[in-house]
Design brief:
Blueprint: E1 2-6, H1 10-21, E2 25-29, H2 33-40, H3 51-61, E3 64-67, H4 70-74, E4 79-82, H5 98-110, E5 115-119, H6 127-137, E6 144-148, H7 158-163, E7 168-171, H8 175-184, E8 195-198, H9 200-231, H10 235-243, H11 264-277, H12 283-306, H13 310-313, E9 317-321, H14 336-346, E10 350-354, H15 359-365, E11 370-371, H16 375-379, E12 384-387, H17 399-405, E13 410-413, H18 420-424, E14 429-431
Parallel strand pairs: 1-2, 1-4, 2-3, 4-5, 5-6, 7-8, 9-10, 9-12, 10-11, 12-13, 13-14
């Protein structure tokens, strides 16, 4: 089957490469000529483990190609995926659907055969209806069906998530759409991947509801961590204890500096705006969004307290280890590190930093931060070290060397990747999340 993937960013490129690896003929389309040129040269626009090799293999096999010509790219495709960005709209937090609508119009004007149009982008409830209206107004003589097929990819583990999904959600309103989508995902049937076929609007809401629920779990355990510090409990034990309940589960119950990334911040906001439009407020999610934003700056204040408080911190230096919102990605969107660094610099603290993949994208966002070539360069002369992202490269630091390089042996572990007694045995003052 030929598949067209309109949009060659994170979702489109990973999905396109994986579909090609299943044996489909895939064309990835993007208006950004420089991105397409780079892909032709084997240069990935994002960092995702294993993606470069997957793309190289399928380009070499002839199953994966790239173009800026939408009309040519969708020609003969049975399924045309829309995988463009839906960022938060400036000013009101609604999802910006201008790119989705633009693709729908261009597809309607250039469609040359019967096809299923699939919204892979994260879109609010009712977007599929509008895409269908746009296609109908184009006057295309060809048969089409508009389907919702949300993605559930974790950055840093996207290829595995695509090939071994927890579930595949398909929202379709007719047999044409359902049949084509079954054929698209047939290679996964051998893995017995759960397939949920539902209405288009239900499918659109599933994506937002899932992300909002996961964001709620993260925010809940972060607030429990604060309580643990007050009462002398250990949040890691609390997390394990509640996570062993099958009704709750252990995932997304790791205390830290707050959630960020490309999905949770914008999707929770978009869900709140949808709820507002339909006069059906979601108070829990409202609290989650507010609490998460305040937590990020609170983590900056936690580091300042480790320096001795506001007055003592002024003029001192902090080394931040990790800048991306999570490991195994270069994504800086809404990363807690941004708010933490801003809080520190606002308090008169100078900041040095190291991240294995995120520094290129971080530089324009955090111009006040000095980027270093390795963690030890960042630590040199620091009055405190803060671990912000749990990269594997930070899990076994040479603590004796760290102590020698740092001006003061103060470690603020915002991801709880070290055991307190181990760190203190090297003479460090150690601060973590939700532990005495």
């Amino acid at each position: 089957m030929k598949i067209a993937m309109v949009g060659s960013g994170y979702v489109g490129l990973v999905s396109g490469a994986c579909f090609a690896d299943f044996g489909h003929d895939v064309v990835c389309i993007d208006k950004d000529q420089s991105k397409i040129d780079a892909l032709h040269d084997g240069i990935m626009p994002i960092y995702e483990p294993g993606l470069d090799a997957l793309v190289e293999t399928n380009v070499a096999s002839g199953r994966l190609s790239f173009t800026t010509n939408l009309a040519e790219g969708i020609k003969g495709a049975s399924a045309i995926f829309i995988a463009v960005g839906t960022p938060s709209r400036r000013g009101d937090g609604h999802a910006d659907l201008s790119f989705v609508h633009a693709v729908a119009r261009e597809v309607g004007e250039t469609l040359s055969n019967d096809a299923v149009i699939v919204t892979k982008s994260t879109v609010p409830v009712g977007t599929g209806d509008e895409v269908e209206r746009i296609l109908q107004s184009s006057g295309t003589p060809h048969k089409f069906s508009v389907v919702s097929n949300p993605e559930f990819l974790r950055e840093g583990a996207a290829i595995g998530d695509f090939k071994r999904p927890d579930r595949i959600v398909i929202g379709a309103e007719d047999d044409f759409g359902r049949d084509v989508m079954r054929a698209v995902y047939r290679p996964l049937f051998l893995n017995e991947s759960p397939l949920l076929i539902t209405s288009r609007r239900s499918s659109e809401l599933i994506k937002y509801a899932a992300n909002a629920f996961l964001a709620t779990k993260i925010t809940f355990i972060n607030e429990m961590a604060d309580l643990c510090e007050k009462v002398g409990a250990n949040v890691q034990d609390v997390s394990r204890g509640i996570g062993m309940d099958n009704r709750i589960g252990s995932k997304f119950l790791h205390a830290g500096p707050g959630y960020g990334g490309s999905c949770f911040p914008k999707d929770t906001l978009a869900l709140l705006k949808t709820a507002e439009d339909y006069d059906s407020p979601i108070r829990i999610v409202e609290a989650v969004v507010k609490t998460n934003e305040s937590r990020k700056r609170a983590m900056g204040r936690k580091v300042i307290e480790a320096l001795g408080g506001s007055d003592a911190a002024r003029g001192k230096k902090v080394a931040l280890l990790g800048l991306t919102f999570k490991p195994n990605t270069d994504d800086m969107r809404d990363s807690p590190a941004i708010a933490i660094a801003q809080t520190l610099t606002d308090g008169g603290v100078s900041v040095s930093a190291y991240d294995p993949e995120g520094m290129e994208l971080a530089r324009p966002i955090m111009p006040e931060v000095t980027m270093c070539q390795d963690p030890y360069s960042a630590i040199e002369g620091a009055d405190a070290i803060a671990i912000v992202t749990e990269w594997d490269a930070f899990r076994a630091l040479d603590l004796a060397r760290v102590k020698e390089l740092a001006k003061s042996p103060v470690l603020v572990d915002l991801r709880n990747i070290y055991q307190p007694d181990d760190v203190r045995s090297f003479g460090f003052t150690y601060h973590s999340i939700g532990r005495a």
